[in-house]
Amino acid sequence: MKYRQLGRTALKVSALCLGTMNFGARTPRAESFSLLSEALDQGINLIDTANQYGGELGVGATESIIGDWLAEEPARRDRIVLATKVHEPMSPDVNDRGLSARHIRMACDASLKRLRVDHIDLYQMHHIDRTAPMEEIWQAVDLLISQGKITYVGSSNFPGWKIAQASEQAAARGRLGLVCEQALYNLIERRTELEVLPACRAYGLGLLAWSPLAEGLLAGGASDLSGRRQNLATQQKALLLADQIARFEALCRGLGQAPGAVALAWLLHQGGVTCAIIGPRRMDQLTSALSAPDINLDGGVLSAIDAIFPPCGPAPEAYAW
Prior knowledge:
By secondary structure, the chain is an alpha/beta fold. Helix content is 37%, strand content 16%. The strands form 2 sheets. It has an 8-stranded parallel barrel with strand order 3-4-5-6-7-8-9-10, surrounded by 5 helices. Strands 1-2 form a two-stranded antiparallel sheet. Helix 3 (101-115) runs parallel beside helix 4. The relative contact order is 0.13.
């Protein structure tokens, strides 16, 4: 496994991050344990979850599964960089959601209890809260850091302007501020390149790419596209995407590599991207991704991929004239 610095910090994280959204919701507890153990054995040290994950088992269930896995062998805790998130509704209570200082503090304590740890390495704001002033958010974060409950702070699904605002206000307080942004980014969905990725580069945030395989479409999923066309805006777009995926798969065959591995490798070749978050439901999905950090794509291949899936741009001045 290869390792990279998380944004401008000295912290080293694996180029692949184990996303756990399926644990409990789609992947049974025992298999979730196996995936966590295999990922750790293969050198993946960044484990990402969120307090709301759990599916039909209920919010918090995924954190509890990870906590039980950590308790099974306590030495595992020191080998991983543990990341979770706050923002989403945790109950019908009107204040049990969002980024108020009260909820951030209460949610952090609840996550620590479910994860069965005394601190969270990376605490991420799952979405922006349009009602919460950044001053209030940073006040709560500063307290959690001073209490030793969290170490680093990140954002998720933030627009570029919010990354800039949060970073400037943290700097004004003399604080480290955001160290990473977790964003939707893959060959099919490249809008992150317009302003989010440039903002991350400018402020020293590492980008953690979620849904790197576009829900499986980039993992050899051309045959699955027909069943998803109802989710696309028009038939014309569906046909265009089917053609793009077919061309991409042909390129991957020429490289002698699986499409999913190439799609992950492409992300890791983008400046500012720290890691790709894989979300395996089964062991074979985990093992198929492990080769991606070692795949080198030369300039010709990267240009060929851009010809199939055109980049967004010119960034970050796409809206300027």
